[in-house]
Design brief:
The chain has about 750 residues and is α+β, with helices and mostly antiparallel strands. The protein is about 35% helix and about 25% strand.
Length: about 750
């Protein structure tokens, strides 16, 4: 029996869909893209209409051939890659690879991986959207042109291995400029004065001094504060006024990709990359016991805040049952997008409100449960009634001064019963912190001063970006697409242009150097306005109002001219990022300068490449290991490489012998006899592995020590960081002792 072939990207999604549809369908996964631009060259024919020179991705030929063979045996073919521009491009590439043999190939959009969602998508299957394909192709070529034509400038002026991305460089610019603002910031002193006050009925509350002689009170020094304190101590305190007002707070719409990343960062400190990975798992399908695999959320790459009417009704039914009809607004809320947001599919929401977080918790990991709960709660809250807040403000007269105290009480919690905002940064209330106010208080009633509480403050610089606040800024400025934010931040961290300290993103010296070169020499290309304008133009390509090749043509020729100008000044640019040391090269007599390398700064002869003399920065002598090179008899030195420290011959480059640097700890594996050395992954993350690799595959993210666990007898412990210092931990039984 011939089957219908459905082609998706993800094996997990394929597995879920296969279980939903049953034996009449076969489901194949491409595991992402099947063709791409070549890595070793530009791969774009700029002289012939910017034609991309796509080729099969290495290792995908066998998979493509298998899909083609299955397609030949199928009576119907449906391509159901992700419902966005990138998914549309993948669908088109699959379409080109498959031998049609007269068969019509359809395109289905799975906005949710559920029985109803899949059935609806198959019933509405249509054709590939060529405009989306062209928009994605234009983006891919733009990024390739910038990356492959600008990066070599960084290699020749700073160091090999650096990269310049069209959007990542603008994100780096924002981070660097924020750091410049922080460094240039000059704090200003100011003071606040709070007062603890008692009523005739002995009720005590706190108020803040806000006015002096009918003008806003500003205190700039301790001396000024002392003068005001002296007057306030002798003043007569009288209750002057009570103002009560009510306000309504409306819920926020369901999540988009951007707001999901922001809130996951603020609530759980998830990185953007981590958030998107977990969301992908929830979308593609979770095994729910007897119910089988079900996608718990709708597609997670979206700019839209709208929801389908049937989903809205399901949310209202859930709210009425779980919280009562008083928590339902009279009319359902339908959110609409404004501005440039794409509205191809819905906001991120649960696929079934009957699957509340508690009922599926046992099937989810801790991270999946957190994210699913947040998505569920945000969607439910978006359809709930407004919260009604009562604000009471008391005014106290103290001779020439006025003090105010406030209390905010939710009269009706509404959506706040489900959703509470978490802020990245907190600010002070101008009237002091909310306090419990006295109930019985008459106008003109005399009050008693209990205590004055002066406090010195200093204005603070703008906060460094966290991943959440950077995503928010990129979204507000229209830079990149929300689906790309995670990869943008990951690249900046992996390239070591930015480092993460606690939650803050801080530019490294290398990042600041790269940003300086790019912005000084290509200010238009890496400007916020130009990058945002380019996103709008890509939207116009999808809408059909701009031709993709015309867009590239208008970009490329001014870009090419700017690059030629830079190439003519590459020596000048290189010298601008080098620092003179005044030290003479002992090999050729040239001047030693400080240059950048893959592993940071080092000293090198200015006559490079004629003279290749280098040495560590600050005149530090190479660390001697005390070991002899087995090849030439020279001394082995401790060196830093791409994958961590190692031992290298001091006679390099004549002798290129290297060997692992062990840390003096024996391999814990019985009978191995190897030693543990420190290493680094390709992305620079440190780990520890055996010198006998690949014969011994022992690895650990934590430094092992040859110390037996007193609880379970395991033959080694690991050194791990704790808030109070470091501790030795048994990886087997979790025994722990402080160092």
């Amino acid at each position: 029996m011939q089957k219908t072939l459905i082609i998706v990207e993800s094996p997990t999604k394929a597995k879920t869909i296969s279980r939903i549809l049953g034996s009449k369908y076969s489901v194949a996964a491409t595991v992402g893209h099947i063709i791409d631009l070549p890595q070793e060259r530009l791969g774009v024919d700029v002289k012939n209409g910017f034609k991309p020179q796509y080729r099969r991705i290495k290792g995908k030929s066998k998979l493509i051939d298998e899909i083609k063979q299955t397609a030949a045996k199928s009576h119907q073919i449906i391509i159901a890659t992700d419902p966005d521009r990138e998914g549309e491009a993948i669908a088109y590439h699959i379409y080109q690879e498959i031998d049609h043999n007269g068969k019509k190939i359809q395109r289905a959009l799975f906005h949710e991986i559920t029985g109803a969602g899949v059935s609806k998508a198959l019933a509405e299957a249509g054709e590939i959207d060529q405009m989306k394909v062209e928009a994605q192709q234009a983006r891919r070529i733009l990024d390739r042109l910038v990356g492959y034509m600008v990066s070599p400038i960084l290699w020749k002026t700073v160091a090999k291995g650096l990269s310049a991305g069209r959007v990542q460089s603008v994100a780096l610019k924002l981070i660097c400029e924020r750091e410049d603002e922080i460094k240039a910031f000059v704090p200003e002193e100011y003071w606040s004065i709070d007062a603890d006050i008692s009523t005739l009925s002995k009720e005590q509350f706190r108020a803040r001094c806000v006015e002096y002689r009918d003008e806003k009170l500003k205190i700039g020094s301790e001396e000024e504060a002392s003068q005001h304190l002296a007057r306030l101590r002798t003043a007569e305190y009288v209750f002057e006024d009570r103002k009560v007002s009510r306000s309504l707070r409306k819920p926020k719409p369901p999540f988009t990709t951007s707001t999901l990343q922001q809130e996951a960062g603020k609530h759980f400190r998830f990185s953007s990359k981590q958030t998107m990975a977990i969301a992908q798992q929830l979308y593609e399908g979770i095994e729910l016991g007897e119910k089988g695999a079900i996608g718990l959320i709708t597609y997670m790459r979206t700019d839209s805040i709208r929801s389908a009417p049937e989903a809205v009704q399901q949310a209202r039914d859930y709210i009425a049952n779980a919280y009562g009809t008083e928590y339902l607004p009279k009319k359902a809320r339908f959110y609409k997008n404004k501005g440039r947001a794409q509205d191809a599919h819905e906001a991120i929401r649960p696929t079934d409100m009957k699957l509340d977080p508690k009922s599926v918790k046992k099937y989810l990991t801790a991270e999946q449960f957190k994210l699913y709960s947040m998505i569920f709660q945000r969607f439910a809250a978006s359809q709930m009634a407004d919260a009604e807040i009562e604000l009471t403000v008391l005014t106290i007269k103290a001779d020439d001064y006025r003090l105010k105290a406030s209390e905010s009480i939710p009269v009706f919690r509404g959506f706040l019963a489900v959703w509470q905002e978490v802020e990245d940064e907190t600010g002070e209330n101008g009237e002091g912190k909310p306090t419990k106010l006295p109930v019985k208080l008459s106008i003109g009633e005399k009050l008693t001063l209990v205590e004055l509480l002066p406090e010195q403050h200093f204005t603070e610089p703008p906060a460094r970006f966290t991943e959440s606040s950077l995503v928010k800024m990129l979204d507000e400025l229209g830079i990149g697409r929300p689906s790309t934010y995670a990869s943008i931040i990951s690249v900046l961290l992996e390239r070591k242009y930015v480092e993460r300290k606690e939650r803050s993103l801080i530019p490294t010296e290398l990042g600041a150097t790269v940003k300086g070169i790019l912005i000084a020499n290509l200010p238009e290309i890496f400007s916020v306005d130009f990058t945002a304008k380019m996103e709008n133009q890509l939207d116009n390509v999808e809408a059909g109002s701009v031709k993709w090749d015309k867009l590239l043509e208008e970009f490329y020729y001014p870009f090419e001219a700017a690059l030629e100008s830079i190439k003519a000044r590459k020596t000048e640019i290189r010298e601008s990022v080098q620092e003179k040391t005044g030290e003479q090269c002992e090999k050729c007599g040239g001047e030693m300068v400080i240059r950048w390398g893959r592993n940071g700064k080092f000293m090198a002869c200015s006559n490079f490449p004629k003279c290749r003399n280098t040495k560590p920065l600050n005149g530090e002598e190479p660390v001697k290991s005390g070991k002899v090179c087995p090849k030439c008899g020279g001394e082995l030195l401790v060196k830093n490489g791409k994958f961590g420290r190692f031992l290298g011959c001091g006679n390099y480059p004549k002798c290129k012998h290297i060997e692992p640097l062990d840390i003096g700890v024996k391999c814990p594996r019985d009978g191995c006899g190897g030693k543990i050395s420190e290493k680094r992954t390709k992305k620079g993350k440190p780990f520890y592995g055996c010198t006998n690799y690949p014969k011994c595959d022992f690895i650990s993210w934590y430094q092992p020590v040859n110390e037996q666990c007193p609880d379970c007898g395991n033959n080694y412990l690991e050194i791990r960081k704790r808030k109070t210092g470091t501790a030795k931990v048994c990886p087997k039984c979790k025994f722990e002792k402080a160092e």
